[in-house]
Amino acid sequence: MRHSDQNHTKETFMNLLPQQNRLIRKSICILGLLALAGCASQVPLDDKQGAPITPVSPSAPTPSASGSSGAQDSAAATVTREIAAARAELARVKPSIYFDYDRFEIRSEYQSVISAYANYLKVDVNSRLIIEGNADERGTTEYNLALGQKRAQAVSRALEIMGVAPNRVEAISNGEEKPKAMGSNEAAWAENRRADLLLK
Amino acid sequence: MQVFQWNLGWCFRGMRHLASLISTIALLITGTHVLAQSPLRIDITGVGTRQIPVALAPLEAAPGTQEFAATVMEVVRANLQRSGVISLVETGTPQPPLNERTPPETLFQEWRGRGAEALVIGSTASGSSNRNEVRFILLDTLRSASLGGLAILTPNSTLEARRAGHRISDFIYEKLTGEPGFFATRLAFVRKDGEFHNLIVSDSDGQNTQVALRSRQPIISLAWSPDGTRLAYVSYEERDGINKPVVYVHTLATGRRVVAANERGSNSSPAWSPDGKSLAVVLTRDGNSQIYRVSAEGGPVTRLTRSAGIDTEPSFTPDGRHVYFTSDRGGSAQIYRVPIEGGSTERVTFNGPFNARPQISPDGRYMVYVTRRDRGFQIAVMDLSSRQETLVSEGSKDDSPSFAPSSRWVIYSSRLGDRTLLTAVSLDGKLRSRLSAQGSDIRGPAWGRLP
After folding, report:
1. Terminal-residue alpha carbon distance, chain A
2. Which of B195, B242, B324, B335 is the mutation pick for testing A, counting most A CBs within 10 A?
3. Which residues contact B21 (CB under 8 A, 6 or more apart)?
4. How far apart are CA B212 and CA B250, in angstroms?
5. What integer pLDDT is reported at residue A119 of this predicted model?
6. Nearest-by-CA chain B residue for A146
7. Each residue of B172-218: pLDDT tens digit?
8. Average pLDDT for residues B33-40, to the nearest whole number?
9. Which one, A180, B6, B259, B341, has the greatest CB density within 10 A?
10. From start to end of A68-192, where are the E strands?
């Protein structure tokens, strides 16, 4: 039994990945405000945001107001292009990382997922990532919550290694409380040993 | 409407609402009725092995209290049968009616002859301010002696009649078995109804249910405050735009809720300090799951454990000096304990690959926990002085064990087929009764005292 998370409920967010819509559709207004307000204060205006502005040629002085506006337009266009490219890269990977029983290492096959998300977080400076760790049903409620957290944190650390600032990412755990696959068998357990990446 | 059923066949409907704040007034009948020692004291060895035959004569009800009296006795009858150590002797309707003033000398021989080793006689009467009084005495027919009794003055309501019945049950159970009773207590658990997670508070028999919280998101890790007035729990309800585990403290009488822990990451596994002022909680703000201490009103946290792996599932000892917890620091999940005031951490469990979620009994003598054995995840009880362990559940997916306030019973959740239900079991694993909800999963029980 799978959760349906493919519904595009708001036209405004059609340009995002379907997987991202699950969170977004819950509280569009609140999320929007928090994402903007929260990230504006959390993320310093560093070279990543400033970079697209630099291509303006120093040999061509642009004293006029219109010239300056043109440079900004082109910078904005560059940012939009970069975000679109990063988004296209995201669309090629599944927003989930699976783990072996009682293990927390990210297998090499998921490196493309990590780099796609790291890249996206770098270019879209207003984005935030929630990593939800999950565990299979074996064990106790609270210990499984801690196991899910360990998985979410493994993903968080991998992103940090790729240069993502820790305050852009929050690792949380659902433990065994939100199983994607029901049933007490190896296939269901494997599906539930998972971390999901949710852009906000 | 929900139907709760104990496995011994007693079936009631949960339908009562908010508990009256007026507490039951109990007065011990003094004088010749009270005897110090119970001659019927036995060691409980199992249902059917040795059950004490007890006759419960109908309470003589003054006009206007018949329904009240019937409710009280219905509760007492169901409780004593559920205990597994008492069997009921048929009484019929004695003529003339018996009550606590009936001279006991006239009763011992007759009731001994009818197979009863104990006889309960009493009456109900209406008092002022819409209150009723129930009085009873317990007679030991084998020794021809009175074991004392109670007079309980209580508001005239079905809820209070049931509460009075639980107090009377505790009195009889204690006098006859020598063990503290467990009927006048409260349960909290989570009932899943379709999309909704309902946090339920009920009497020990699953009656008088109240929904304290209803959410589309999971509610887990319920813990009663030592005084029975507040519940700590973890709820995934939306907060600041995301659904993540946050620790709340909920005062049941007022519905007031405070956020006790909402740090970056996950907040989980609250445990009360014995004075009811603070909680041990598990936070991930500094990395992996570690144990911290926080006021029950929230506020700054102080770190209690420090390891490179998982530390979770804290439980205070009743003297407040140690916290038991689960850690994977040794490579697998095992139980450890750490002194609150600092000092070295000590490993407690060594048997098997998985021992977790310790809870220390209110009397400090036992630890209940979840262990992985041949039949999957089972509940075990360890005698902390001898370190001897007893498996008290069948597996294979048992969880959330919680001691009764008396320390003599444990309730836990287990899976039966595709259903999750609750089982209460005696510490030796021999007496057992089951609480299930028709058509719903119930889990995560916490057993607390009445406020």
Report:
1. 25
2. B242
3. B253
4. 9
5. 96
6. B289
7. 999 999 988 999 999 999 999 889 999 999 998 888 889 999 999 99
8. 25
9. B6
10. 96-98, 129-134, 169-175
For B384, residues 6+ apart whose C-beta sits below 8 A from its C-beta are: B360, B364, B365, B366, B367
User: Which residues have C-beta within 8 Å of that of residue B309, sequence separation ≥ 6?
Assistant: B288, B327, B328, B329
Tell me the average pLDDT of chain B: 88
A53: three-class secondary structure by DSSP = helix
Q: A140 and B399: CB-CB below 8 Å?
A: yes
How far is Cα B227 from Cα B204, in angstroms, rounded to an integer?
Answer: 16
Contact B133, B160 (CB under 8 A): no
Q: Which of left, alpha, beta for A133 (phi over 0: left; psi -120 to 50: alpha)?
A: beta
Cβ contact B312–A142 (<8 Å) = yes
Put simply, the answer to whether B284 touches A149 (Cβ < 8 Å) is yes
Which of A143, A151, A178 is most worth mutating to test chain B (most B CB atoms within 10 A of its CB)? A143
How far is residue B209's CA from residue B186's CA, in Å, rounded to a whole number? Answer: 10
**Beta carbons of A170 and B284 less than 8 Å apart:** no
Q: How many CB atoms lie within 10 A of CB A16?
A: 15
Taking contacts as CB-CB distances below 8 angstroms, the residues of chain A near B236 are: 174, 177
N-term to C-term CA, chain B: 26
Mean pLDDT of B253-263: 97
Share of chain A above pLDDT 70, in %: 64
pLDDT digits (tens, 9 = 90+) for B371-419: 999 999 999 999 999 999 999 999 899 999 999 999 999 999 999 888 8
Beta strands in B384-431 (DSSP E): 388-391, 396-397, 399-403, 409-416, 419-426
Check if the beta carbon of residue B446 is closer than 8 Å to that of residue B399: no
Q: Is B397 on the interface with A (CB under 8 A)?
A: yes
